[in-house]
Amino acid sequence: MFKRTKVTDGTATGQGPDAENWDGKEVGFRKKSKVPGVMITQYIEKLPEGKSHPDFTRKPIALTIQEGKFAFFKAIVTGDPKPTVVWSRNNGDVSDPARYQSKYDPNSNEHTFEMPHVKPDQADTYKCFAKNEYGQAMVTVVLNVIEVGFKMTKAPQQQAEVANCNFKKVLKRRSKVVPKAEEPEKKEGEIDPKFWELLMSADKKDYERICAEFGVTDFRWMLKKLNEMKREREEEQAEFVKNLSDLKPIHINADGTASFELEFDLLDPSSSIYLYKDGEMIPYTKELGDKMKHCLRKVGRKYIFSMRDLMPEDAGFYQLDVEDVNMFSTDFKMVDFLVKIQEVKAMEREDAVFECVISAPLSKLMWFGKNMPLEQGDKYDIEVSEDKLIHRLVVKDCMVVDKGIYAACAGIKSCNAWLVVEADKGAPKGKKTARKTTRAGGSGTDLQKVAQEQQQILDKEREERKEKIKAAREAAAEAAAAEEPEKTADSGAGKDKGAAVKVERIDKTSVAATTTVAGDSGSGHSAGKASGGAKQDGSHADAGGGHSAGKASGGARKDGSIADAGGGHSAGKASGGAKQDGSHADAGGGHSAGKASGGAKQDGSPADAGGGHSAGKASGGAKQDGSHADAGGGHSAGKASGGAKQDGSHADAGGGHSAGKASGGAKQDGSHADAGGGHSAGKASGGAKQDGSHADAGGGHSAGKASGGAKQDGSHADAGGGHSAGKASGGAKQDGSHADAGGGHSAGKASGGAKQDGSHADAGGGHSAEEASGGSRQDGSLADAGGGHSAGKASGGAKQDGSLADAGEPGITSGLSDIHAIRGQPAELTVKMNTDCDGAWFKDGEPLKSGGGISITKDANIHKLTIHSCRDTDSGLLRFVSGDLSTEGRITVGDVPEFDEDDLHKFSKPVIVRVGQNAAFKMPFQPQESLTVSWFKDGTELKDGGGVKIVREPNHSRLLLRDCLRSDSGEIKIQLKNPFGAVEATSQLIVLDRPGPPEGPVETVETTSSVIEIKWNPPKDDGGSAVTNYIIERQERGHSLWTKLGDVSAEKTSFRDRNVTHGKKYSYRIYAENPQGLSDSLETADSIMAGIMILSGPPGKPKVVSTSKTCINLTWTPPEDDKGVPIIGYQVEKRKKDTNQWLALNAINEPIEDVNYAVKDVTEGAEYEFRVSAINESGAGDASPPSAMACAKNPNMRPCFKDPEDFLVVRAGNSVRVKISYEAEPPPHITWLKDDEPIAPWINVINTEGMSQLVIPSSKRSDSAIYTIKAKNSVGEAFFDVEVRVTDEPKCPGPVELEQTVYGKVAVSWVPSPDQELDDRLYYVVSQHDSNTRMWKTVADRLFANTYTAHNILPGIEYHFRVYAKNDMGLSDPSQSPTWGANSNRVPISSNGVSSMEISFERPPSILVPLKVHTPPKGYQLYMTCAVRGCPTPNVSWYLNNTCINSDKNYYITNSCGVCSMYILRVRENDGGEYRVVAVNSLGKAECSTKLTVRD
Question: Can the peptide bond before residue 1001 be classed as cis, meaning omega within 30 degrees of 0?
């Protein structure tokens, strides 16, 4: 169980709501919200029923917006009672109603925070608080404001901020590619910065294209410089991202948007991502893609930038930065169409071509067909010329369905044209025509000429760029050669060299520093060393202040000229030059992380260290003539010290911001040597004087030490009273004068210097975490420790002239410090004095003596306090006092962390999991203060995040590794560490997986006609558990089935296959198995044959059985000697006459199993010879002798007809087609006869090879006859008769009469059908219906007479008869007989005078359900219905455009119980119009109508 942790809201002042409404000190319980990023604090543990704490259902969304726009955040909160919502920001207040407005919409329940005309100073992290009496919910959201342009009113403000060192506000985020409006005028031949940015983001295959575009021809120079720039860029990128990959340049998508993408992992998820276009930042959104033009989406590790609504002005150079480092650059170009695609008219099965020419090379266009993107494939060919200016789309094998609009898109430019496909009218119906080899379409212009002209224009522009670059380089070389005699020692790290060079540096992280010097080391970007040159003529040799991670130092001169170190940005050292003539040697105060020191002079001229920004050391120069040696007060994290003088002039250390040391200079004439009181984390000490003048240490804020200087004349040497966390004590003197300790705060010791003349030696109290000690000199003067702020020690220095360094009085050379002692272990504290003197020990102000586990000893000048067994009561502040001297240190007693033995034993057991499972480790321990818990895997510390989850509780820690892989196996270690020591516990993680595949290759140990033995090696990785066995499978060559042969134990890595057939080849694969499953297989590289190769002898000579123009039939005999190996088939080869090449007609793995074969791959009229080889398991054997030469042609034969039909029935009006196939050689003469007479002229005869067809377009009954086909050639002739009968559905028979001749029999007779005389195949069908069964049944069929006798006619039953006429076309309508039976013999009953009222059901017709409007497509079927009522039953007629269609065969009309239907099988265009239904009976008439519209 996890305990609830009570927390206190830690909202700082200025970050939360007003104090009067929100006290920020409510105690509650942390709760988890369903919305990520929401922090909820619940004030009571159990909520009342129906009540709830506040929560966000919609949180505000981060926003990046341009200055001056309307910015707003929206949030929706829930909670009962209704929460109160308050907005705030981290750095500032939101009380100004003109700039901040909070609104609430009760309808949508939205809380809105609005900022009209947003300004850059409103960019901040904002918080939204929702609170009620049961809890509080809080969420943060970031607002980024893109500043527009340069404001004149901001220039003075920025200068003031520079003076106050507030660089964060001065720096304005910029891209390295300058906007066009701010782009400086390029020098002749200067390379565009876009060139390098594009190269660093491009693939190597694109280098040549980019160089050609920018006119760069020196590829070796380009690659060398590119590699240097890439190394610098990768180092910068490594500070913010990792795994940068998959850089895809910008391209146009099918949906009309443009996008580019890349993949990387942010080291800090809160890092900001910026987008630039042509050097200007552009706003984008992450979630409101429909409201802003630009969008940046994250999908896993992938970041996708996209923009919609493309316009020509969207073309430009796009960059993506993380914080201040560029990650990706891409160029978005707009091209135009010089020649657009044109309309193409193609015949069916012909290829269609669309082609165009564009204005700039492009590797690929987007092609669309009928609004669908097209890709290279079986249907489409996409072609691009070598110069990438001509693009073609080929639509292969056009069909009618390919008709439509096709388009080519290049960015936002596009052109489209129609493809019209016309059907091939000459193609035979019902058959697919052969594909055509022609191409239709094209632009109609000389595309090659247009492309060449455009290429010439592009080449000319490229050559002009090359000439400019070449001319610029030659001019630079000439200038360098002209200036060479004037320069004797000048080395530069910059980009430009000359007599006067202006160095300007602008980037995202620093302000511009501009200096104009003579003979400089250039201020270029360098990771090495930039040093000034050495001169002998007095001219300047300076080290420029460029961006450097190395060292920039001034030059050394012999003539007294100036050697300066420029104050540029440096992570190295910038020091002034050394001079012998008294001229200046200055260290510039630029931005540096190294050291900037003044030069050393011998003539008394100034040697200054500039006060620039530095993280190194800035010290004044050393002089011998008393002139100034100053250390500038710039920003430094190093040391700034004053110069050392011998003439008493000033040696000052500037009071700039420094994290290093600032010390005053050492003088011999009594003049001032001051250490400026600037902000420093280093040391500031006063100078040492010999004339009694002041040597002061400024009282600035320092974490180092400030101590007074040591004097020999009795004058004051004071230490300023700065803030220090150490101790300040007075110095020791020999003349009785004061030795004062400044009242600063110090955690260390600050002591004054030792004097020999009785003057003051004071120690100042400043903030310092370092030690300040006096220097050593060669002239016998003092080397003093400056009075800076220090937590260490300041002592006198050692001299080289034989005298002691202020050792005339007792002093502490080694004092006490804070220690941590282990409980029960001994501890020893030692103090070392410079003389043998007594001292006393105190603990927490109480004196200590030997005894009670404590021993105090003294050995000469060494004093020791020993605690034999430390206890908790021994903790405290120990102090040693000897006279006026004292030192102190704190001892803390505690224990090293430890584990419980049982817990340690449990933890040491290995954790075993399967692949994909989670592994968990837990280690309890005793709660302790200052305890650090760390987890390690194989010596590498694990961090929380990704698949690693680390939970730290007061009494235990847990480690969870999610979705373990096999590679996660290893040693897991937990470490507990506190100030007293560390303890570790080790366990093992074993991740089980199926083993790896056995190691190959598979070796063949033995192969015989009956045995194959193979061998392999165990797998490298057993998956964490031992391999139990190996499984072997086999596949016979030519088969697809793998068969399991068995398995062998893990100790055996070989297998003997005894079930093999001699001559056959086999493949094997082996699996390793462990408890987790099977490994991947190891398969033999080649098939293994059982035994040796035995080939069959040659078969007999092939014989030609028959020949035709399409086929030659062969036969042969098996080989006489098969060598004892069964033959599985044969291979046939052919050779054309007058050639030497034999061509195989079948593959060896597809043998011919029979001893005959029909060769169909022949050319009519060509002569061939053939040979045959027998195939067994070893392969194809020797070939047979070749056959006799055979010609592919048909033999002479008498005409004969193949399976003809001798009878054909056709409905009148339809076409008659009589097809007769025949065989004959040579082709015969065909003649058709009708009843032995020549056929009429309107009858068509179509003769093709092997078939003759007789066609009557529209047949009539008179076309019924016997048609004879006659085929005659030189060999003979043949005849065949076909009877054609043209008929129609018969008309119904006449009236039916019934007559009973004998009891139980009724004679049925009818009038013959009118078609009986015209159709000798017409007959009659009789159906019967009785009142008992009430079903119609056929009682007579195929009656050629006009009478029929019905049997079993019973009295009392009604009978009805129907007579149909039937022929080959079908049945006629029936003729109905009168009723026979009971009803016809009924006797009427009289009413005997009783009258009765008659009821009539008769009524005129009426329409119950009218017709509906229909709009069917052409060729579709149609049903049209309505409902009619009336008595007697009305007669219903259908009309189309006032024409009755009841008898029209194109319409199927029915009337079933008043439901009238009309059905059209396939709707035609002439079926459209007004349809009307008219119902008529004796009492009246009714009608309804509708319209039918036929769609295409």
Answer: yes
Rg, C-alpha atoms of the chain? 55
1142/240 Cα distance (integer angstroms): 69
pTM over 0.85, yes/no: no
- With 0-12 / 13-18 / 19 or more C-beta atoms within 10 angstroms meaning exposed / middle / buried, residue 1252 is buried
d(Cα 260, Cα 225) in Å, to the nearest integer?
26
**Rounded distance, CA 787 to CA 750, Å?**
7
Q: What is the mean pLDDT of each run of 10 residues along the chain (1496 residues)?
A: 37 38 53 86 87 91 87 92 92 89 90 91 92 92 77 42 42 52 54 80 81 78 86 87 85 77 86 83 66 78 83 81 86 81 88 89 83 87 87 90 87 82 74 76 75 80 72 72 54 36 32 32 34 37 35 37 36 36 37 35 37 35 38 35 37 35 37 36 36 37 35 37 35 37 34 37 35 36 35 36 50 88 90 88 88 87 90 88 89 89 88 91 86 91 89 89 90 91 92 91 88 92 89 90 91 91 87 91 89 85 90 93 87 92 90 92 91 88 92 86 88 90 88 91 89 91 90 91 89 91 88 86 92 89 90 88 90 91 52 55 90 90 91 92 89 90 90 93 91 89
CA distance 1128 to 1240: 62
Q: How far is CA 1483 from the centre of its chain?
A: 83
Q: Is the peptide bond before 1226 cis (omega within 30 degrees of 0)?
A: yes
Pairing between β-strand 919-924 and β-strand 750-751 as defined by DSSP bridges: unpaired
φ and ψ at 211, to 5 degrees? -65, -40
Query: Which segments of 741-867 are extended strands (E)?
Result: 750-751, 812-814, 819-822, 827-833, 840-843, 846-847, 854-859, 862-867
What's the CA gap between 722 and 636, in Å, rounded?
19
CA–CA gap between residue 655 and residue 674 (Å, rounded): 10
The answer to whether the CB of 182 falls within 8 A of the CB of 276 is no
Q: How far apart are CA 71 and CA 87, in angstroms?
A: 14
Q: What beta strand segments (E) does 1028-1093 contain? A: 1029-1036, 1043-1049, 1054-1057, 1065-1074, 1077-1078, 1082-1083, 1088-1089
Q: Are 1235 and 1282 in contact (CB under 8 A)?
A: no
Element (H, E) at 150: none
Tokens of 293: 């033009």
